[in-house]
Amino acid sequence: QLPSPQRCLCLYFETSNQFSLSVLISRNYMGNMDMNEIDHFMPIMLRMEEDADTSPLVTHGSSHFLWIKHRNLYLVAMTKKNANAALVYSFLYKIVEVFKEYFKELEEESIRDNFVTVYELMDEVMDFGFPQTTDSKILQEYITQQGHKLEVGAPRPPATVTNAVSWRSEGIKYRKNEVFMDVIESVNLLVSATGSVLRSEIVGSIKLKVVLSGMPELRLGLNDKVLFEITGREKSKTVELEDVKFHQCVRLSRFENDRTISFIPPDGESELMSYRLNTTVKPLIWIESVIEKFSHSRVEIKVKAKSQFKSRSTANNVAIMVPVPSDADSPKFKTSTGSCKYLPEKGVVQWNIKSFPGGKEYMMRAHFGLPSVESEELEGKRPITVDFEIPYFTVSGIQVRYLKIIEKSGYQALPWVRYITQSGDYQLRTN
After folding, report:
1. How many whole angstroms separate alpha carbon 60 and alpha carbon 64?
2. What is the CATH number of domain 285-371+380-391?
3. pLDDT value at position 45?
4. Which helix (H) or strand (E) holds 394?
5. Is 0.90 topped by the overall pTM?
6. 379 versus 208: which is more confidently predicted?
7. What are phi and psi of 291, to 5 degrees?
8. Which residue has the higher pLDDT, 26 or 415?
9. Domain ranges for the chain
10. Is the pLDDT of residue 225 over 60?
């Protein structure tokens, strides 16, 4: 649901191939834009690239070009009015999502192969400068990629197109009604070679899989710090959420008034909300490494991995990537648990530990031969990276206090909640 109209908006696709700077497809929504204006866009972009001074908004005369780039395509919105730029960019990124849902990959070839579908989608997502339905699940109910068949009578679009609840169809029925909720947190961490935390961030999302009949209303309660302060429960364990973004189904006015997350959910899978926490995180998996390089002979690597979370939790599918010199060969490994393999194309040793309980410590030793003639080039010291997943655990301490399901027929429904912490950009620098 994009709230305000754009007085004049044209959508263009341009290939970035230097030998073919042509418009692939376009749509003039209000008819008051000169279609030849787009010819000025690429020359302006080329001049900006030469000057290393690119801008997301460029102007030629009274025409404004608001653009984003995806793979080898430029998606360009044109306007002559004082348009809401944030709304335009939100719409362009939403268009990318819709096309990726339809064509898997959005690139020049997929546009050329699906011209008819693309034109239909461009007609439906915006009407006379007003953004309309941009939910791919709803669009797929009446815009398909199969050939159109002749039908008796005019086909009717689904009611969701004109409903206030445009993200959910009416008349949905299931024999067993359930809601599955995943609270997923990714830990972004950068640790210096001396062991100090340089960057620490938690990026979280709450994802839903809804299997509910009718038009239910859901109410979600979290241990939100602001809510607990309002209700006088400051002593309880709380989480202060930052940069919260909601799915369009959430009633924002109610959340702003009393911090209640109330919504009619989309059917099937969706992301209800995302959030971020800028907080100092104790590294969940701590790595210490010693890399000894013997000139013209060999390199020996010793790595110690320690899990710094409680013993009742277990990290699964842990992969520790330790960088090695690009000219190393003849690998030999010894580990106290798990297995190692050398990935020369990535220049790393990958130490895999299937199950890593909390409070445990493991060792790995690697031995590599080096060529007799050592390279004169100095290689940059790459960091050790770690991938992992810890089920039934959140590093921020966020909790689902309740998940209520209200539907006028009064059926019984089961809510299921699962917590997962995983690695994001998790790096530890080496000496």
Report:
1. 6
2. 2.60.40.1170
3. 79
4. none
5. no
6. 208
7. -115, 115
8. 415
9. 10-148, 178-281+395-428, 285-371+380-391
10. yes
For the chain, what is the largest distance between any 2 Cα atoms, rounded to a whole number of angstroms?
82
Question: What would the pLDDT profile of 113-142 be if each residue is shown by its tens digit?
Answer: 888 888 888 888 887 777 887 877 778 777
**C-alpha to C-alpha distance for 124 and 144, rounded to whole angstroms:** 13
Which CATH fold would you assign to the domain 178-281+395-428?
Immunoglobulin-like (2.60.40)
Alpha helices in 267-336 (DSSP H): none
**How far is residue 389's CA from residue 421's CA, in Å, rounded to a whole number?**
6
Report the distance separating Cα 79 and Cα 88, nearest Å. Answer: 10
* Amino acid code (one letter) for 152: V
Measure the CA–CA gap between 143 and 121, rounded to whole angstroms.
Answer: 7
Q: Which residue has the higher pLDDT, 11 or 246?
A: 246
Architecture of the CATH domain 10-148? 2-Layer Sandwich (3.30)
CA distance 42 to 15: 10
pLDDT of 252 strictly over 70: yes
d(CA 382, CA 402): 44
